[in-house]
Each structure stands twice: as structure tokens, then as C-alpha cells.
Automatic annotation (TrEMBL):
Gene Ontology biological process terms from the UniProt entry: 'de novo' IMP biosynthetic process; cobalamin biosynthetic process
Protein name: Phosphoribosylaminoimidazole-succinocarboxamide synthase
UniProt keyword list: ATP-binding, Ligase, Nucleotide-binding, Purine biosynthesis
Record bears the keyword Ligase: yes
UniProt record similarity statement: Belongs to the SAICAR synthetase family.
Length: 233
């Protein structure tokens, strides 16, 4: 078993498959702040499973196999590429701080950024030539990652818009599966996306936990309820 910030990973009888268990745990500041949050694992597993099912159905190759219980899912084992791939549709978070822009300034085209995954280094920003120099990914892999991340953005923007939610920004991670194919992995949930109510601009994501502005689960449950209603239509 190995444990991340909000999930536990278990090997299974099939060496190419992993069982992911979602924990009732929220972290901030790269894991330095950690708190128990009732039902977070169940809600995030459901949101993530719904989104990965939706992406799979729309032609994105992902690690997702199936949801197996309230807080567990089965995924393909992958060798992860140590990159956090961030896509932004509007200014918030580190972008807003870095360039001192108005909150939710709309971008004409999505912004893409890469961060090198390293807890020790606090996930530093990394550019294409640094990725090349450190052999983090090949130019070919990087091109696929860029293309897939933009396709995921278009699909998710549409899905969330139908649910009355604005997709501000999010983080993806990719890896290589047993067949050598580059596919989308990790988690997509309000832990890894910035989501605001399209009408009120109320935060429905982990910013509520990061900024201590309310009960984080209210937003997460709203996201799940609205996505379930949208895909059921
Ligand atoms: P920012 O760079 O503004 O802090 O984050 C941009 C987006 O990527 C946000 O939606 C944020 O939730 C996500 N993100 C950035 N770093 C991490 C990380 O280490 N873990 C998770 N789960 N999401 C991240």
C-alpha cells in the first residue's frame, strides 16, 4: 500500500491494475496542513468517477477502469510523468498573485503551465526546455500532453457550464500504461479544480479549505449533485 495526500493505493491480483481508496482527508500547503473531513472520500470518488467516465466516453484515453464502491475505484497501473499540467480559463490562484490581475480575468485562449512534481522542491514551475534538459518527457510526449489537456479543458468546460459552474482552472497528471500508451491519470475533483458558481461566483472547491472561508463539503456536494443531474439529462 502507498499513501498520498488524499488517497491510498493498493496493488491487486492483476499487476496492471490498482485499487484507489479515497480518504476523508483534506490537505493544503503541499500536505503541511492536514485535516479530517467527513464524507470527502465518498464525494470525491463519485465526482472523479463521473468525470473520468465522461472523458472516456468523449475519446480521452485515461487510467480509469471502474468505480467499485463508495470510496474505491479501479485504475490502470501507470508509470507517472512527474509533471503537473495546469490549464487556466481565467485568472485565480498563483496566476492572479504572480501577475496581479483582477480575479477571474477571462483569457481569450486557455493558459497552459507545467510544474515539476517534487514535494521536496515544492513543485517548481518548469518550461519546455527545462523539461527537455531534465528528460522529464520527450518532445513527442509533451505535444500529446498539451493536446490532450486542451481537449480535456474543452470537454470539462462544457460539462461544468451545463451544471451552472464555471471551470476556472485545474491540474492534470499523465502517465504511461503497460502497453506504453500515454494516458490521463490521477484525480479530477474539487481538490484539483477551481470551480465557481456561474451566477454567484461562490467557490465550490478546495479554495474554501485553503482560505478557511466555510464548510468545504457544501461546495463539493453542490458540484456532485449538479454534475449528476447534468449527466442524467
Ligand atoms: P495554482 O497554480 O493557481 O495554485 O493552481 C492552479 C490549479 O491547479 C488549481 O485548480 C489547483 O487546485 C490545481 N493544483 C495546483 N497544484 C496542485 C497540487 O499539488 N495538487 C492538486 N490536487 N491540485 C493542484
Amino acid at each position: 500500500m502507498s499513501e498520498g495526500k488524499a488517497k491510498q493505493l493498493f496493488t491487486t491480483e492483476n499487476p496492471n491494475e490498482i485499487l484507489v481508496h479515497y480518504l476523508n482527508q483534506a490537505t493544503a500547503l503541499n500536505g503541511k496542513r492536514k485535516e479530517h473531513v467527513d464524507d470527502k472520500g465518498i464525494v470525491n470518488n463519485q465526482i472523479d468517477s463521473l468525470i473520468f467516465n465522461y472523458l472516456d466516453a468523449h475519446g480521452i484515453a485515461t487510467h480509469f477502469i471502474k468505480q467499485v464502491s463508495d470510496s474505491d475505484q479501479l485504475v490502470k497501473k501507470m508509470t507517472m510523468i512527474p509533471l503537473e499540467v495546469v490549464v487556466r480559463n481565467a485568472a485565480s490562484g498563483s496566476f492572479q498573485r504572480k501577475f496581479d490581475t483582477p480575479y477571474l480575468l477571462e483569457f481569450e485562449e486557455p493558459v497552459q503551465e507545467f510544474y515539476y512534481k517534487s514535494d521536496r522542491l515544492d513543485d517548481p514551475f518548469i518550461n519546455d526546455s527545462q523539461i527537455h534538459a531534465l528528460k522529464v518527457a520527450t518532445a513527442e510526449q509533451l505535444a500529446v500532453i498539451r493536446d490532450q489537456a486542451l481537449k480535456v479543458n474543452s470537454l470539462m468546460k462544457k460539462l461544468f457550464a451545463e451544471a451552472g459552474i464555471k471551470l476556472v482552472d485545474f491540474k492534470l497528471e499523465f502517465g504511461i500504461d503497460a502497453d506504453g500508451k500515454l494516458i490521463l491519470g490521477d484525480e479530477i475533483s474539487p481538490d484539483s479544480c477551481r470551480l465557481v458558481d456561474a451566477k454567484t461566483q461562490q467557490s465550490l472547491d478546495k479554495d474554501v479549505f485553503r482560505k478557511h472561508t466555510g464548510n468545504v463539503m457544501d461546495g463539493y456536494r453542490t458540484v456532485l449533485d449538479r454534475l449528476q443531474a447534468t449527466v442524467a439529462e
